[in-house]
């Protein structure tokens, strides 16, 4: 960071990463409007403000244990950071489409995609971790979503059954997570030497390359990470575009 941003900006980034993050929830508009959810929460003496960037988001303070909170159990909302909410809007899903969500667990983006599709169409939620796919299923059930199916599959390994089958593809690849240090403070003590970082970016490139094979001609693919590092973002995408001239940004 010192080499990339200079001392002053590096200090600002570190200070931002040390601030306590705001808790954001995503309104499940399949069941309730944002204004109605805001009213429900305020009756429980929870401080609520509208999100900054998306029409579903609410910033909340004083939310009790969600596993026992009625509005959560009824599927009226999902805890999801607003940056994560924006990703599904970038994919811009429509009702009736077939969408593949790769590295999908625990299902925040999967369920949001279904919400934007008005629970009409089909979503295939892939993840390499079978136990985490159970979280996708649980979230879908709680939120009243029935268009998503799960499949255990390593994102870097091609599932030939779905070649050129998807209208749109979403990839949220494994990454360093540097962009979410505020929410995962343990990342401060995680180190990446050059070899480990190279292995990670190689995996990210493989997943993107594999995922591109699922897309129909004229479809849309969104590649996302929780990192701010260009090697994991612009670097991966630039290399992919060089190797796949049939895709454009």
TrEMBL record:
Keywords: Methyltransferase, RNA-binding, S-adenosyl-L-methionine, Transferase. Gene3D superfamilies: Sun protein, domain 3, Vaccinia Virus protein VP39. One of its GO terms (biological process) is RNA methylation. Residues 13-249 form the SAM-dependent MTase RsmB/NOP-type domain. InterPro entries: MeTrfase_RsmB-F_NOP2_cat (IPR049560), MeTrfase_RsmB-F_NOP2_dom (IPR001678), RCMT (IPR023267), RsmB-like_ferredoxin (IPR054728), SAM-dependent_MTases_sf (IPR029063). The keyword Ribonucleoprotein does not apply. One of its GO terms (molecular function) is RNA binding. PANTHER family: NOP2 YEAST -RELATED NOL1/NOP2/FMU SUN DOMAIN-CONTAINING, RIBOSOMAL RNA SMALL SUBUNIT METHYLTRANSFERASE B-RELATED. This is SAM-dependent MTase RsmB/NOP-type domain-containing protein. It comes from marine sediment metagenome.
